[in-house]
Amino acid sequence: MTDEANSAVKSGLTNEGSGQPAAERAPAFEDGMLDVGDGHAMYWRAQGPRDAPVMLIVHGGPGGAMNLKWGEVLDASKWRMVFFDQRGCGKSTPFGKLEHNGTNDLVGDMEKLRVALGIEKWALFGGSWGTTLALSYGVTHPERCLGFLLRGIFLARKEDIDWFLWDVQRVFPDAHRAFLDAIETASGQRPRNAAEILAFTGAPLARFDDAGIKLARAWSGFEATLSVVNKPAPAKVADPARKDESKGDESKGAESKAEVPVAAAQSDAAKTTAALPEASQADATQAGQASPEATREANAAAISMSLLEHHYMAHELPPEPLLPRIGRIAHLPCVLVHGRFDMVCPADQVQALADVWPGAQLSIVDAAGHWTFEPGNVTALKAGGEYLAQALVPTPTPTPTPAPTLG
């Protein structure tokens, strides 16, 4: 698609320009668009003390877009945080563009951002696909890295992709069957293996029509189902008939504020592989009660995620193997956090990484899956962020004691 067509699609899906209320107590930040070449422009955002070590936050997907809530696992007084949207997703433009969109392109974009912001070195915090990209950047530019905080390791090997697309049905047969049903509805063909999933979904996802949107929502919903072990309670939908009863009742008012439309929660799921919804899937009744804008945002997020995940799995991955190159960064501090019951990226991947990175701090979290915000994952990430912050504090040079003079 042309850049103009892509922009029109994104605008139609997200209703850009309608205006959003500012988040309460949002931190002061700087942001901008960086021309990274090849017709792509990257959106970035930086916040936190300028004199603190910099943490580059690398979102998942591919196609997930930044999630500012990731910053909440870090001590905001100890880090300057830099977020960015990778090519083709979030606020980066053009939306959904696949040309010149590969792992090496994204690594190059990260380095261009570092130079543009005048940062000498930074640490990297990545989740899921963000770990693949953080590691790829690290082994390419080891001299620019301070350390790593990695959650839900994805090594992007063929067996890792096959697990997600096909072999996971051994644990989630019902969800996988529903995924195949959606592919058959969109393409007219039922996949018999992982390769056929990629072969049959490319054309429908690229059309941006109703059938493509339904398939994209099915793709992101499938991923959401695999991702959460400790599923939060389903989001409640306010009953208009009880609206007047809640007036003046502070406890009900607080509860109302906490209620999140399910479609909006699904949009958050699609924004990043590593940040999944408060309710992983909604039934048709709940989805019908979502606001039109929440639905547009969820559709746009699902399209960018599914389209770019398909593009990378079909055409860009596996990358040059990461494990043999880890020696280039193995001298740097690293914290690895992984849910024991991660069904998107099974925990054998983090163990394989830890085996070639002896100095890394490994935390396999019991009763947790792939979702960033599972309670155990959050606890481990907060501890990991604090460990890295302490590891980067310069060790004071002891003042030499003058030798005594002889009288």
How does this structure look, described?
With 407 residues, the chain is α/β, with parallel strands linked by helices. The chain has 2 domains: 3-160 and 318-391, Alpha/Beta hydrolase fold, catalytic domain (Rossmann fold, 3-Layer(aba) Sandwich); 162-230 and 240-316, no CATH class. The protein has helices at residues 3-14, 103-116, 129-140, 158-165, 173-187, 194-206, 210-227, 250-258, 262-271, 284-288, 292-316, 348-355, 375-391; strands at 29-37, 40-47, 54-58, 80-84, 122-127, 145-151, 334-339, 361-365. It has an 8-stranded mixed beta sheet with strand order 1-2-4-3-5-6-7-8, with helices on both faces. β7 (334-339), α12 (348-355) and β8 form a beta-alpha-beta unit. The radius of gyration is 22 Å and the shape is globular. The termini are far apart. Residues 1-24 and 237-288 have low confidence and may be disordered.
**What is the CATH H-level superfamily of the largest domain?**
Alpha/Beta hydrolase fold, catalytic domain
Mean pLDDT: 84
Count of alpha and pi helical runs? 13
Which class of the largest domain in CATH terms? Answer: Alpha Beta
